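cache lookup: miss for this entity combination. No prior model stored, computing from scratch. Input as submitted by user K.M.:
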Amino acid sequence: MPGYTKRLGRELSDLKTNPAVGISVFQADDFRIWLIDIQVMDDNPLYVGKTFRLQFRFTPTYPIEAPEVQFIRSLGREIPMHPHIYSNGHICLDVLGSGWSPIQTVGSVSMSIQSMLAGNDRNERPPDDARYVASAPISPKQTRFVYHDDNV
Amino acid sequence: MDEISDPSDWTGTRLPSLLILDASLRCRICKDFFKSPFMTECAHTFCSLCIRKCIASTPTSETACCPICRAPVLEIRLRRNQVVEDLVEWFENARAAIMTAAKAEPVVISVPVTSADSERVSSSERRGRKRRRDSVDEKPSTSVTPESGDSAPRRAVRRGSRKVSYEVKLDIGDESEDEAAPFDLGKKPDAGSSASANGDSSFIIIDDDGNPDGLVPCPVCNVVMTPQEVQIHLDDCFKEQEAKETRTNQSASSKSNGPIRTLQSQPLSKMSKKPLQRLPKLQYDLFNDSKLRSKLVELGLPAYGTRVQLQQRHTEWVSLWNANADSNNPKTKRQLLRDLNDWESNLTKYAVQKISADDLSAWGKSHSNAFDDLIARAKKNVQKKLDPEQQQGASRTVEVNVQSQYERQDSAPEELKKVDGIDQKVNGRTEERMDYGCDVLTDTLITQPVSSDAIM
């Protein structure tokens, strides 16, 4: 069993036995793609009562390299409004790119995104949303995001 | 180790505090017990292979940093953490036994169970406890010794072919409430931990000679230790003994240590081996393809594939090799080559699966407008190109089109410059390769956003 599947197996059992509030595994049939549902637990009017679906895509280089993480649309699952989340689901968050560290886990990344949503009060998309989405690569990891806005 | 162990295994047992010990003996990168633990200058410990891979994955232009605290980490400054290695070895060996002990039901002594207590336990536990209590109640409430002729101790103390008898007496403060319960060491290894769980009870183990001196020798290896330790130690001791018997080339010197030795004593046979040499990292920029290939051949590695594959293979090999050199039980080169092969086949398997047909068609659909637009433009370009007099005009049209598109979207000035550069390239390539005009345009424009910075 290659190392990364062992680690993912461990993370999966941890997610299932000690689930964090508002984070649940929707689908994890293999060690390539996992779908995680997240909810924002405080009473932020932007996201109250809504559930969003995150897609994690792993490579054999995980956890040395970051997984590909993005929001996906599905029945009853929209892309959350956030100044750092593009309408195609790509997320501009440093821990998914240059800020990645191999000690991070699916749970900790989900929690970072959860708190990123919880701290937001702006009902808007990134300023360059239309341009980015028109020409975005399939994988958000192929985009070199510039992390300059720490306010949200 | 096939079974995946996890610190959370301790939750729900009677020793939940061991969760912290279990978690601290694991590498934060692979979440497994440390293998050849190495410490960084910032005093964080990782498996040798994990931290080496982590450092190797850092681009050469940047300094590698500690995964935990982001302090700079240099590979040559890593230091072996021997204490942690010993701790892990001990804990891994003892874990199963401690787990069994911690999961076994607590021994219920004659303290009456209050109604509040019985409500707290689940129905299944209650059944278990009741059965246990009944069996205890059957026995006479006086202290039992081997000499008393009672049938209880005889029933309890057989373990395999080694007829070692132990009689355990529970001594709880008040003498009048004493109750003796015989323990089969094999079936109920919970005796030691139940003693620690009940602060007011203690064990006195009387060995076959009837010497309750507090310390008892292990019946297998004669190591003297406290009774609690014997419980944990016994299982491992049997395994170790069996392993030793099969090992024919065991040197006689280690056996001549005498019957009494400490738990910590380790065979020193590994130390006598010649230490493996570490491999240096390469500055790949200084090697052209053929030199790199010959370097790989020199190391006994496969030398096929693209330059990127060659570099990745070499980097992985250096990490694997150096981590193996750190190990107390190094693998053979053949095993390492197999590991490398596994790693590479995983990588290529993934590369094939990475972008599935579904993804591509979905992406194609969502960008079909852009494709149509590009094809139309390319066709127009080709038509104009057919008329040699209009050649210059055609190139200019494409340039203006692309530029105006970006102007509309109100992009930064530096990006305009970049777009200009690409335009020129597009024009150049369209002119060179007339037949593929359409493809070239699409290619260039689709890959273009990859290199551009998305500004948030």
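stored under new cache key. The two ends of chain B are 47 Å apart (CA to CA).
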